[in-house]
């Protein structure tokens, strides 16, 4: 039986300076410069949940704030497959990968609003603002193509507002 994709939303969160929020996965604390240790906020959607509702819920859950406004929605659902060694392990073992709806957002808060420590089991343990074009080099190999697409398609937002 072929496993399904998990529906997911993702945020390319731009600072007023045109930089992008990236966070280091808490389960990879030694990945300071390594590809895969840093990623964009993203998370699963509940059955029947509107992607925009899921987006702001996930921002609040993962980075402690949803202070942002949507600039654009990527027109396509982007998918990735897990590598063979993660099938049956990652994503609860129930999915072959994820089908993602991505959004570009402008952050409307201050750096102090970003609170990775608001959850007793945070997904991330560090964060920074990075240049959009650096995204593919930060991603794990199986997500690199999606990050390349996002860097290309959301490039118009990578400038000071």
Give a short overview.
It comes from Siccirubricoccus deserti. The chain is an alpha+beta fold.
What does this structure look like?
The protein has helices at residues 51-63, 135-138, 144-153; strands at 5-14, 20-25, 38-39, 42-44, 68-81, 97-107, 124-130. It has 161 residues and is α+β, with helices and mostly antiparallel strands. The strands form two sheets. Strands 4-1-6-5 form a four-stranded mixed sheet. Strands 3-2-7 form a three-stranded antiparallel sheet, with no helix packed on it. 29% of the residues are buried. The model has no long low-confidence stretch (mean pLDDT 92).
Query: What would the average pLDDT be, to the nearest integer?
Result: 92
Q: Using the alpha-carbon principal axes, give the shape.
A: globular
Secondary-structure-derived class: alpha+beta
CATH superfamily: Nucleoside Triphosphate Pyrophosphohydrolase
Order of helices and strands: EEEEHEEEHH
Low-confidence stretches: none
- The CA-CA distance between the termini, in Å, is 48 Å
CATH architecture: Alpha-Beta Complex
CATH class: Alpha Beta
Instruction: Count up the domains.
Output: 1
Briefly note the CATH topology name: Nucleoside Triphosphate Pyrophosphohydrolase
Largest sheet: 4 strands, mixed
- Classify the helix fraction into a percent range: 10-25%
- Total number of helical segments? 3
Rounded radius of gyration (Å): 15 Å
Motif (Nudix box): 43-64
InterPro entries: NUDIX_hydrolase-like_dom_sf, NUDIX_hydrolase_CS, NUDIX_hydrolase_dom, RppH
Organism: Siccirubricoccus deserti
Enzyme class: hydrolase
